[in-house]
Amino acid sequence: MAAKKSKSANIKDVAALAKVSVATVSRYLNGNFGRMSASTADTIKEAIEKLHYIPNSTARQMKTKTSKMIAVIVSNIDDFFSTELFKGISSMLESKGYIGVLFDSDSDPEREKSVLRSIGSQMFDGLIIQPINNPSDIQKSLVRTMPIIIVDRELDGSPWPQVVTDNYEVSQRATKYFMNQGFERVIVLTSDVNNAKTRMERYRGIESATESIELISVPEKSLNHAAISEKLEASLQTSPTNTLIFCLKERWMLEFIPNLIFKGIIDNKKVTATGFADTDITQMLEPKFKLISQNHS
Q: Which N-terminal stretch is annotated as signal sequence (predicted)?
Protein backbone atom coordinates (compact mmCIF):
# COMPACT_ATOMS: atom_id res chain seq x y z
CA MET A 1 0.00 0.00 0.00
CA ALA A 2 1.35 3.40 -0.95
CA ALA A 3 2.24 5.70 1.92
CA LYS A 4 -0.30 8.43 2.53
CA LYS A 5 0.97 11.79 1.38
CA SER A 6 1.31 14.23 4.27
CA LYS A 7 -0.84 17.32 3.96
CA SER A 8 0.98 20.64 3.67
CA ALA A 9 0.30 23.10 6.47
CA ASN A 10 -1.87 26.09 5.66
CA ILE A 11 -2.42 29.47 7.27
CA LYS A 12 -5.26 28.11 9.44
CA ASP A 13 -2.90 25.49 10.91
CA VAL A 14 -0.38 28.23 11.78
CA ALA A 15 -3.10 30.33 13.42
CA ALA A 16 -4.35 27.36 15.45
CA LEU A 17 -0.87 26.42 16.70
CA ALA A 18 0.01 30.02 17.54
CA LYS A 19 -3.44 30.56 19.13
CA VAL A 20 -4.09 33.72 17.10
CA SER A 21 -6.51 34.63 14.33
CA VAL A 22 -5.90 33.96 10.64
CA ALA A 23 -5.97 37.74 10.11
CA THR A 24 -3.08 38.16 12.59
CA VAL A 25 -0.99 35.54 10.76
CA SER A 26 -1.80 37.28 7.47
CA ARG A 27 -0.60 40.62 8.88
CA TYR A 28 2.61 38.93 10.03
CA LEU A 29 3.25 37.42 6.59
CA ASN A 30 2.73 40.81 4.95
CA GLY A 31 5.14 42.53 7.33
CA ASN A 32 2.48 44.51 9.17
CA PHE A 33 3.73 44.22 12.76
CA GLY A 34 2.18 47.44 14.07
CA ARG A 35 -0.92 45.76 15.50
CA MET A 36 0.78 42.89 17.30
CA SER A 37 3.26 42.53 20.14
CA ALA A 38 6.78 41.26 19.69
CA SER A 39 5.91 38.10 21.59
CA THR A 40 2.95 37.41 19.26
CA ALA A 41 5.22 37.84 16.23
CA ASP A 42 7.73 35.42 17.77
CA THR A 43 4.98 32.88 18.47
CA ILE A 44 3.77 33.02 14.86
CA LYS A 45 7.34 32.67 13.59
CA GLU A 46 7.87 29.58 15.76
CA ALA A 47 4.60 28.05 14.53
CA ILE A 48 5.59 28.64 10.89
CA GLU A 49 8.97 26.98 11.46
CA LYS A 50 7.48 24.04 13.38
CA LEU A 51 4.88 23.34 10.69
CA HIS A 52 7.33 24.03 7.81
CA TYR A 53 4.67 26.33 6.43
CA ILE A 54 5.38 27.87 3.00
CA PRO A 55 3.13 30.86 2.23
CA ASN A 56 1.22 30.84 -1.05
CA SER A 57 2.89 33.85 -2.66
CA THR A 58 0.49 33.90 -5.62
CA ALA A 59 -2.56 34.07 -3.39
CA ARG A 60 -0.95 36.74 -1.23
CA GLN A 61 -0.07 38.82 -4.29
CA MET A 62 -3.67 38.68 -5.51
CA LYS A 63 -4.96 39.78 -2.12
CA THR A 64 -2.42 42.52 -1.36
CA LYS A 65 -1.96 43.62 -5.00
CA THR A 66 1.80 43.61 -4.47
CA SER A 67 4.55 41.09 -5.25
CA LYS A 68 7.60 42.85 -3.76
CA MET A 69 9.30 42.13 -7.10
CA ILE A 70 10.77 44.77 -9.44
CA ALA A 71 11.52 44.00 -13.08
CA VAL A 72 14.98 45.20 -14.17
CA ILE A 73 15.69 45.33 -17.91
CA VAL A 74 19.33 45.78 -18.98
CA SER A 75 20.34 46.36 -22.58
CA ASN A 76 22.94 43.61 -22.88
CA ILE A 77 24.19 41.27 -20.15
CA ASP A 78 27.36 40.71 -22.20
CA ASP A 79 28.35 44.24 -21.18
CA PHE A 80 30.06 44.49 -17.80
CA PHE A 81 28.22 47.74 -17.07
CA SER A 82 24.81 46.10 -17.43
CA THR A 83 25.63 43.24 -15.07
CA GLU A 84 27.26 45.54 -12.52
CA LEU A 85 24.29 47.88 -12.84
CA PHE A 86 21.90 45.05 -11.98
CA LYS A 87 24.01 44.05 -8.98
CA GLY A 88 23.88 47.61 -7.64
CA ILE A 89 20.12 47.90 -8.24
CA SER A 90 19.46 44.47 -6.71
CA SER A 91 21.41 45.38 -3.59
CA MET A 92 19.43 48.59 -3.12
CA LEU A 93 16.10 46.82 -3.70
CA GLU A 94 16.89 44.04 -1.22
CA SER A 95 17.67 46.62 1.47
CA LYS A 96 14.08 47.86 1.03
CA GLY A 97 12.49 44.41 1.06
CA TYR A 98 12.14 43.99 -2.72
CA ILE A 99 13.58 41.46 -5.15
CA GLY A 100 15.01 42.51 -8.52
CA VAL A 101 14.24 40.19 -11.44
CA LEU A 102 16.68 40.49 -14.35
CA PHE A 103 15.61 40.69 -18.00
CA ASP A 104 17.93 41.16 -21.01
CA SER A 105 16.80 43.07 -24.11
CA ASP A 106 20.00 42.04 -25.95
CA SER A 107 20.31 45.51 -27.55
CA ASP A 108 17.24 44.68 -29.66
CA PRO A 109 14.29 47.14 -29.71
CA GLU A 110 11.79 44.43 -30.68
CA ARG A 111 13.04 42.06 -27.98
CA GLU A 112 12.71 44.88 -25.44
CA LYS A 113 9.06 45.39 -26.47
CA SER A 114 8.42 41.65 -26.08
CA VAL A 115 10.00 41.63 -22.62
CA LEU A 116 7.91 44.67 -21.64
CA ARG A 117 4.72 42.91 -22.73
CA SER A 118 5.65 39.92 -20.58
CA ILE A 119 6.38 42.14 -17.58
CA GLY A 120 3.10 43.99 -18.05
CA SER A 121 1.15 40.73 -17.85
CA GLN A 122 2.72 39.74 -14.53
CA MET A 123 2.46 41.14 -11.01
CA PHE A 124 5.60 43.25 -10.84
CA ASP A 125 5.44 46.27 -8.53
CA GLY A 126 7.61 48.41 -10.78
CA LEU A 127 10.17 48.59 -13.57
CA ILE A 128 13.77 49.80 -13.75
CA ILE A 129 14.99 49.93 -17.33
CA GLN A 130 18.16 50.68 -19.29
CA PRO A 131 16.12 51.59 -22.36
CA ILE A 132 16.42 51.22 -26.10
CA ASN A 133 12.96 52.35 -27.19
CA ASN A 134 11.33 55.75 -26.71
CA PRO A 135 8.88 56.49 -23.85
CA SER A 136 5.80 56.04 -26.06
CA ASP A 137 6.84 52.56 -27.25
CA ILE A 138 7.80 51.53 -23.71
CA GLN A 139 4.39 52.48 -22.30
CA LYS A 140 2.48 50.91 -25.21
CA SER A 141 4.37 47.63 -24.85
CA LEU A 142 3.97 47.58 -21.08
CA VAL A 143 0.18 48.10 -21.48
CA ARG A 144 -0.52 48.77 -17.81
CA THR A 145 0.69 51.62 -15.61
CA MET A 146 3.38 50.99 -13.00
CA PRO A 147 6.21 53.00 -11.39
CA ILE A 148 9.16 53.24 -13.81
CA ILE A 149 12.73 54.51 -13.39
CA ILE A 150 15.07 55.07 -16.34
CA VAL A 151 18.76 54.34 -15.73
CA ASP A 152 21.97 55.04 -17.65
CA ARG A 153 20.35 56.17 -20.92
CA GLU A 154 18.54 59.49 -20.97
CA LEU A 155 15.23 59.54 -22.83
CA ASP A 156 13.98 62.79 -24.36
CA GLY A 157 10.49 63.60 -23.11
CA SER A 158 10.54 60.89 -20.46
CA PRO A 159 7.60 61.14 -18.01
CA TRP A 160 9.56 59.01 -15.51
CA PRO A 161 12.52 59.76 -13.21
CA GLN A 162 15.92 59.23 -14.81
CA VAL A 163 19.25 58.34 -13.22
CA VAL A 164 22.00 59.11 -15.73
CA THR A 165 25.65 60.17 -15.94
CA ASP A 166 26.72 63.46 -17.50
CA ASN A 167 28.28 61.58 -20.41
CA TYR A 168 28.92 64.68 -22.53
CA GLU A 169 30.90 66.55 -19.89
CA VAL A 170 33.00 63.63 -18.67
CA SER A 171 33.92 62.63 -22.25
CA GLN A 172 34.81 66.21 -23.11
CA ARG A 173 36.99 66.58 -20.02
CA ALA A 174 38.76 63.27 -20.65
CA THR A 175 39.50 64.20 -24.26
CA LYS A 176 40.84 67.63 -23.29
CA TYR A 177 43.10 65.98 -20.72
CA PHE A 178 44.70 63.76 -23.37
CA MET A 179 44.95 66.62 -25.87
CA ASN A 180 46.92 68.53 -23.23
CA GLN A 181 49.19 65.49 -22.88
CA GLY A 182 50.20 65.77 -26.54
CA PHE A 183 47.72 63.45 -28.23
CA GLU A 184 46.39 65.05 -31.42
CA ARG A 185 43.96 62.49 -32.83
CA VAL A 186 41.16 60.32 -31.40
CA ILE A 187 39.85 56.99 -32.67
CA VAL A 188 36.45 56.28 -31.13
CA LEU A 189 35.65 52.59 -30.78
CA THR A 190 31.94 52.08 -30.20
CA SER A 191 28.73 50.26 -31.00
CA ASP A 192 26.26 52.13 -33.22
CA VAL A 193 26.37 55.70 -31.90
CA ASN A 194 22.80 56.44 -32.97
CA ASN A 195 21.36 53.46 -31.11
CA ALA A 196 21.71 54.94 -27.60
CA LYS A 197 21.57 58.45 -26.17
CA THR A 198 24.45 57.55 -23.86
CA ARG A 199 26.79 56.89 -26.79
CA MET A 200 25.60 59.96 -28.66
CA GLU A 201 26.41 62.18 -25.68
CA ARG A 202 29.81 60.57 -25.18
CA TYR A 203 30.67 60.99 -28.85
CA ARG A 204 29.49 64.61 -28.85
CA GLY A 205 31.67 65.30 -25.80
CA ILE A 206 34.75 63.93 -27.58
CA GLU A 207 33.85 65.78 -30.78
CA SER A 208 33.60 69.08 -28.90
CA ALA A 209 37.20 68.76 -27.72
CA THR A 210 38.94 67.82 -31.00
CA GLU A 211 38.46 68.14 -34.74
CA SER A 212 40.70 65.16 -35.48
CA ILE A 213 38.40 62.23 -34.82
CA GLU A 214 37.79 58.87 -36.50
CA LEU A 215 34.82 56.64 -35.71
CA ILE A 216 35.14 52.85 -35.86
CA SER A 217 31.73 51.26 -35.35
CA VAL A 218 31.55 47.75 -33.89
CA PRO A 219 28.37 45.77 -34.76
CA GLU A 220 27.08 43.98 -31.67
CA LYS A 221 25.05 41.37 -33.54
CA SER A 222 27.62 40.39 -36.17
CA LEU A 223 30.99 41.11 -34.58
CA ASN A 224 33.91 40.38 -36.89
CA HIS A 225 36.84 40.66 -34.51
CA ALA A 226 39.53 40.18 -37.16
CA ALA A 227 38.08 42.83 -39.48
CA ILE A 228 37.76 45.45 -36.72
CA SER A 229 41.27 44.70 -35.43
CA GLU A 230 42.74 45.07 -38.92
CA LYS A 231 40.92 48.36 -39.45
CA LEU A 232 42.11 49.68 -36.10
CA GLU A 233 45.73 48.66 -36.65
CA ALA A 234 45.75 50.05 -40.19
CA SER A 235 44.48 53.41 -38.94
CA LEU A 236 47.17 53.54 -36.26
CA GLN A 237 49.99 52.55 -38.60
CA THR A 238 49.13 55.02 -41.37
CA SER A 239 49.01 58.08 -39.10
CA PRO A 240 52.15 59.75 -37.74
CA THR A 241 50.25 61.71 -35.10
CA ASN A 242 49.94 60.73 -31.45
CA THR A 243 46.63 58.91 -31.13
CA LEU A 244 44.15 58.24 -28.36
CA ILE A 245 41.83 55.24 -28.69
CA PHE A 246 38.62 56.13 -26.84
CA CYS A 247 36.38 53.12 -26.12
CA LEU A 248 32.81 54.08 -25.27
CA LYS A 249 32.32 50.90 -23.24
CA GLU A 250 34.62 48.46 -21.50
CA ARG A 251 33.57 45.48 -23.58
CA TRP A 252 35.40 46.91 -26.60
CA MET A 253 38.47 47.76 -24.54
CA LEU A 254 38.74 44.14 -23.43
CA GLU A 255 37.98 42.89 -26.94
CA PHE A 256 40.53 44.91 -28.93
CA ILE A 257 43.06 46.67 -26.68
CA PRO A 258 44.98 43.67 -25.23
CA ASN A 259 46.23 42.64 -28.69
CA LEU A 260 47.54 46.17 -29.31
CA ILE A 261 49.38 46.06 -25.98
CA PHE A 262 50.83 42.62 -26.82
CA LYS A 263 52.07 43.86 -30.22
CA GLY A 264 53.67 46.92 -28.66
CA ILE A 265 51.46 49.30 -30.66
CA ILE A 266 50.14 50.88 -27.48
CA ASP A 267 53.13 52.44 -25.71
CA ASN A 268 51.33 55.30 -23.87
CA LYS A 269 53.54 57.75 -25.73
CA LYS A 270 52.55 57.65 -29.38
CA VAL A 271 49.42 55.57 -28.83
CA THR A 272 47.32 55.15 -25.69
CA ALA A 273 43.77 54.18 -24.79
CA THR A 274 41.03 55.28 -22.44
CA GLY A 275 37.34 54.66 -21.97
CA PHE A 276 34.53 53.83 -19.60
CA ALA A 277 35.56 51.01 -17.26
CA ASP A 278 33.12 49.07 -15.11
CA THR A 279 35.57 46.57 -13.59
CA ASP A 280 39.26 46.53 -12.61
CA ILE A 281 40.22 44.19 -15.44
CA THR A 282 41.30 46.83 -17.96
CA GLN A 283 43.35 48.67 -15.35
CA MET A 284 45.14 45.41 -14.53
CA LEU A 285 45.95 44.89 -18.22
CA GLU A 286 47.71 48.24 -18.36
CA PRO A 287 48.17 50.04 -15.02
CA LYS A 288 49.25 53.25 -16.81
CA PHE A 289 45.86 53.74 -18.46
CA LYS A 290 43.75 56.69 -17.32
CA LEU A 291 40.18 55.38 -17.30
CA ILE A 292 36.69 56.66 -16.55
CA SER A 293 35.10 54.59 -13.78
CA GLN A 294 31.38 54.44 -13.01
CA ASN A 295 29.66 53.82 -9.69
CA HIS A 296 26.81 51.32 -10.09
CA SER A 297 25.55 51.30 -6.51
A: none
**CATH superfamily name and code, 167-293:** Response regulator (3.40.50.2300)
Q: Strands of 292-293's sheet, edge to edge? A: 213-217, 185-190, 243-247, 271-277, 292-293
The conformational region for residue 5 under phi > 0 = left, psi -120 to 50 = alpha, else beta, is beta
Q: Which of 45, 46, 101 is nearest to 73 (CA)?
A: 101
Q: The pTM is what?
A: 0.66
Q: Where are the domains of the chain?
A: 11-64, 69-163, 167-293
What is d(CA 296, CA 278) in angstroms, rounded to the nearest whole number? 8
The C-alpha atoms of residue 87 and residue 235 are separated, in whole angstroms, by: 37
Residue 48 CA to residue 10 CA, distance in Å, equals 9
| 254 compared with 66, residue with greater pLDDT | 254
pLDDT surpassing 80 at residue 44: yes
pLDDT of residue 255: 93
Please provide residue 87's backbone torsions phi and psi, each rounded to the nearest 5 degrees: -60, -45
- DSSP H helices, the chain, are 11-18, 22-29, 38-51, 57-64, 80-95, 109-120, 135-142, 167-180, 197-207, 225-237, 250-262, 281-285
CATH classification code of 69-163: 3.40.50.2300
Give residue 81's pLDDT.
84
- Phi, psi dihedrals of residue 79, rounded to the nearest 5°: -85, 130
Q: Hey, is 17 helix, strand or coil?
A: helix
Per the model's pLDDT, the better-predicted residue between 102 and 122 turns out to be 102
Is the per-residue pLDDT at 189 higher than 60?
Answer: yes
Question: Residue 1: what pLDDT?
Answer: 42
